[in-house]
């Protein structure tokens, strides 16, 4: 996470990350949620591509420690609640809204890195796509006095 933080020093870039990283996580999960699942899984509404992605990424967060696993599960639960809420009340298809948010949030990320003057970390290593949410969560943990490695 220290290496990730090196390319996120500028306050504008940091601010954009606080908005864009959660938006990217939410929109990516929403896009995955919108992909139809095989018929065998249709009887379980919470078994879908988004929940499978969360389970797969938890393997990465286990390496960072239990607080990150719990934090990412809480974030995923919030995202899933927002996705279900959106599906039940929105006039546009979930995939369309998620795609718009995804694109706008990535534009925000690249603007932030342009201001920072450094390339996004994931250009060096794709694992940094998973570090971004954890990096922000680390700030929250420190603010709440939650110890992590």
Structure, described:
By secondary structure, the protein is mainly α. It has one domain (9-144). Helix content is 73%, strand content 0%. It has six helices and no strands. The chain has helices at 2-6, 11-34, 49-64, 66-89, 94-116, 128-144. The longest helix has 24 residues, at 11-34. It is globular, with a radius of gyration of 16 Å. It starts with a helix and ends in a 5-residue tail after the last helix. The relative contact order is 0.21. The model has no long low-confidence stretch (mean pLDDT 92).
Layout of secondary structure:
Layout lengths: L1 H5 L4 H24 L14 H16 L1 H24 L4 H23 L11 H17 L5
Indicate the low-confidence ranges by residue numbers: none
> Helical element count?
6
Distance between the termini: 10 Å
Percent range for β-strand residues: under 5%
Percent range for helical residues? over 70%
Q: Care to count the β-strands?
A: 0
Please state the oligomeric state of the protein chains shown: single chain
| Main beta-sheet annotation | none
Structural class: mainly alpha
Mean pLDDT: 92
Radius of gyration, in Å, reads 16 Å
Shape: globular
Element string (H = helix, E = strand): HHHHHH
Q: How many domain units? A: 1
């Amino acid at each position: 996470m220290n290496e990730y933080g090196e390319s996120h020093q500028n306050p504008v870039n940091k601010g954009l990350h606080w908005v864009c990283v959660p938006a990217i996580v939410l929109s990516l999960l929403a896009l995955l949620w919108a992909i139809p699942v095989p018929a065998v899984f249709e009887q379980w509404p919470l078994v879908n591509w988004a929940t499978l992605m969360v389970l797969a990424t938890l393997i990465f967060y286990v390496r960072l420690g239990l607080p990150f696993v719990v934090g990412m599960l809480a974030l995923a639960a919030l995202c899933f609640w927002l996705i279900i809420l959106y599906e039940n009340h929105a006039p546009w298809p979930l995939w369309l809204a998620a795609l718009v948010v995804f694109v706008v949030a990535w534009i925000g990320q690249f603007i932030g890195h342009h201001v920072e003057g450094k390339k996004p970390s994931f250009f060096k290593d794709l694992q940094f796509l998973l570090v971004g949410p954890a990096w922000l969560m680390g700030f929250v943990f420190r603010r709440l006095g939650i110890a992590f490695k």
